[in-house]
Amino acid sequence: MAPETPGTEPQALSNLLHENRRFAPPADLAAAANVTAEAYDEAAADRLGFWERAADRLTWAKRWDTTLEWNPPFAKWFVGGQLNIAYNCVDRHVEAGRGDKVAYHWEGEPEGDSRTLTYADLQREVNKTANALQELGVGKGDRVAIYMPMIPELPIAMLACARIGAVHSVVFGGFSASALKSRIDDADAKLVITADGGYRRGAPSALKPTVDEAVAECPQIEHVLVVRRTNQEISTYDRDVFWADIVERQSDQHAPEPHDAEDPLFILYTSGTTGKPKGILHTTGGYLTQTSWTHNAVFDLKPETDIYWCTADIGWVTGHSYIVYGPLANGATSVIYEGTPDTPHRGRFWEIVQKYKITILYTAPTAIRTFMKWGDDIPAKFDMSSLRILGSVGEPINPEAYVWYREHIGAGRTPVVDTWWQTETGAVMISPLPGVTSGKPGAAMRPLPGIVADVVDDQGQSVPNGGGGYLAIREPWPSMLRTIWGDDQRYIDTYWSRFPGMYFAGDGAKRDEDGDIWLLGRVDDVMLVSGHNISTTEVESALVSHPKVAEAAVVGATDPVTGQAIVSFVILRGSVEESADIAAELRNHVAKTLGPIAKPRQILVVPELPKTRSGKIMRRLLRDVAENRSVGDVTTLADSTVMNLISEKLPSAKSED
Ligand code: 6R9
Fold first, then answer.
1. How many other C-beta atoms lie within 10 A of the C-beta of residue 597?
2. Is the pTM higher than 0.90?
3. Domain assignment present for 403
4. CATH assignment at residue 585
5. CA 536 to CA 567: how far, in whole Å?
6. Domain assignment present for 406
7. How far is it, in rounded angstroms, from Cα 418 to Cα 405?
8. Distance (Å, rounded) from C-alpha 300 to C-alpha 288?
9. Ligand 1 site: residues with CB under 6 angstroms?
10. Helix 38-45 / helix 47-55 crossing angle, nearest 10 deg
11. d(CA 257, CA 165)
């Protein structure tokens, strides 16, 4: 498409949304903050020295010789160093006299079903499990697939693997047998750890039958280790071993062997937008350095007094880095919740905040928008005065959702930290620091100290303030992926070929007039309307800024006049009735907020949106609907019935104007 104004090149990505609200850090938080503004200068002056000091927060069995070996795009951090991750996450806290401190308050979905594990308890459980894994023939470098509900045995299993140097591959408890099988095969795992089932939406949900189906075609699997959680009926096979039979009789002593800083820690598969899942490989020393540093800095964690809750599933990278490794390395007290936010009622999250007096809450925009839809009156019923910091991760947070989160969950006083990162980056990369940054609704703000990120144009040149483009990372960072398991070439092609010498994350971004970074969604989703590249995020945020809208997803659909036209799917807030003129009202609202170029061609009011299990909107499927195609592959949808609900709405979709 030709640009609208002759002679002007279309920008890589338009910058349409402008935001003037600012929230300064609370004075008491700023005065006592773990990390202050000096950290940016220190890291800018000596980036490797900065990461060395971060690594010194860990306990090393042998100090490293070389901080970074960089043979682009292959990085090695803390080369020659040795450490044991389980020792760092568990034993050292017990040795320091903090064995009675709670590591995890676990809250099962059925009410009243809870468990508390201190660091001393965790040490005994991890040791017994490490001994059991060794009895089952698992050794250093072996791969272990973990397919479990959100129960304490999940982090225990991960830590037991880390302790003996086995490489875990956690597969989301909702994935199908074929997805599990392909991940077992790709990593050539020899053991699967699972459970009979877990509780979801008020009922036991089986896991073991899926494992049985997957493992039937995986001859390399020697054993399946099964935790009894729901006590539902399951089939058993010769290869099955029950956790209660083998783990419980082990010694609770186990010597933590030091592992090399670059020994593999885990593989985590990401499906990406298309194609075969990529086994993202993370290693030991750099990963723990950056997860623990960022958890301390971004959440201003005070291990003695904070109660921290990350609501993610451990099967997602957020759970690996910010339920298991980061918080435990820092000696934090965390909450783990097994179930869904609406079981048995829509105030369950806030009841948990009230019960445990949570001080730091880390959740996803999809959850926040759902709470907006359910209504302000629900959180208002609970005492959440303990909260002092709120975090967001997983998608761009719309400015209105940010403000709602701050107001209705944070009582208008808590900072909100919008943290951008990926499975591939291992840990947070771009985020405000709660005691330093004046927060801006919708912006991830600045790269953290020690991270060199940029917004670049098609040619890889930095865009000026006010410009849009691609998010790229210019220097290696400690918790970066080391490769795609078994496929170095795919690693090079996927991440390092778009812009020579830079890591390309696949996300669009802009740098606003103050130089702050905004994430604008996946570049695959960008819409090309009359020669303008328009981000889905900005149009969605404009829709969500209308008082009647709780959630929105937009896609570009082929259009004879404009190339692509914007088609919007919206969910209304709880109390709002769908009226005949709602579409016109919302289209005009977007045009007024962002300019006429962003005015949607169509608005469809829908009851739900298609999402992955980690809550990301799957726009690909909505594009199929918008272009009247049959809907594509729905296997990674959290709820496969959603697309039927949306398609039913289609006859009412008509082009306006
Ligand atoms: C941690 C995680 C990564 C993709 C990433 C981006 C999106 C995550 C975000 C965000 C805007 C944020 N994303 N956090 N977009 N603002 N704060 O989500 O990892 O599942 O690998 O997804 O998620 O598009 O590229 P992962």
1. 16
2. yes
3. no
4. 3.30.300.30
5. 10
6. no
7. 11
8. 17
9. 270, 316-318, 393-396, 418-423, 444, 505-507, 519, 522, 614
10. 110
11. 8
